[in-house]
């Protein structure tokens, strides 16, 4: 596998969990965008949002995607908003393959509602709002994706096997 595999999708679609699993299956390293940004800035993502605002965080995402071009191929768990900038998507496509993970709004809510670490859902942690934001972002996710994998009701192993089947011809 010579390229990065970018896992994209809405919050709670399983990017982090499946990136871990996929990295183990392939022997590749894992890049967790949120964690790397948080480590570099020495503060959690929600603190970056609160102190410096969303645009600043989006700039950090763009910088990190730029840097990935110079690193060994990895499985990249992207932040849920990383594809909102066309510039980021163009770089992802240069650097690797982009796999969109999807889940229903209900599944997303079940997975993340107890966590309290998603600033873009602050004060709006409910299924109707998640559905609305998901729909608003859908064109960006669809435009970025080389492949799509639905995650509802599947194990990480099933999801990662599907991903590997899809990407294997192109890596
Ligand atoms: C965001 C998703 C988060 C994180 C930040 C913004 C978004 O990542 O990057 O809170 O705009 O969708 P996850 O998708 O890993 O939750």
TrEMBL record:
InterPro entries: P-loop_NTPase, Shikimate/glucono_kinase, Shikimate_kinase/TSH1, Shikimate_kinase_CS. Catalyzes the specific phosphorylation of the 3-hydroxyl group of shikimic acid using ATP as a cosubstrate. It is found in: Cytoplasm. It comes from Candidatus Copromonas faecavium. It is an enzyme of class 2 (transferase). The gene is aroK. One of its GO terms (cellular component) is cytosol. This is Shikimate kinase. Pfam families: SKI (PF01202).
């Amino acid at each position: 596998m010579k390229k990065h595999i970018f896992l994209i999708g809405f919050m709670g679609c399983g990017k982090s969990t499946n990136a871990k699993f996929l990295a183990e299956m392939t022997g590749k390293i894992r890049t967790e965008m949120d964690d790397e940004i948080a480590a570099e800035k020495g503060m959690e993502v929600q603190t970056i949002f609160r102190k410096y605002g969303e645009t600043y965080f989006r700039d950090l995402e763009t910088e990190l995607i730029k840097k990935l071009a110079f690193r060994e191929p990895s499985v990249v768990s992207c932040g849920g908003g990383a594809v909102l900038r066309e510039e980021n998507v163009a770089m992802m496509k240069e650097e690797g393959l982009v796999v969109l993970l999807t889940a229903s709004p209900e599944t997303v809510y079940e997975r993340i509602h107890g966590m309290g670490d998603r600033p873009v859902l602050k004060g709006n942690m409910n299924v109707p709002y998640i559905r609305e934001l998901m729909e608003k972002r859908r064109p960006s996710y669809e435009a970025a994706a080389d492949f799509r994998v639905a995650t509802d009701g599947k194990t990480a192993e099933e999801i990662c096997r599907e991903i590997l089947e899809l990407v294997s011809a192109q890596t």
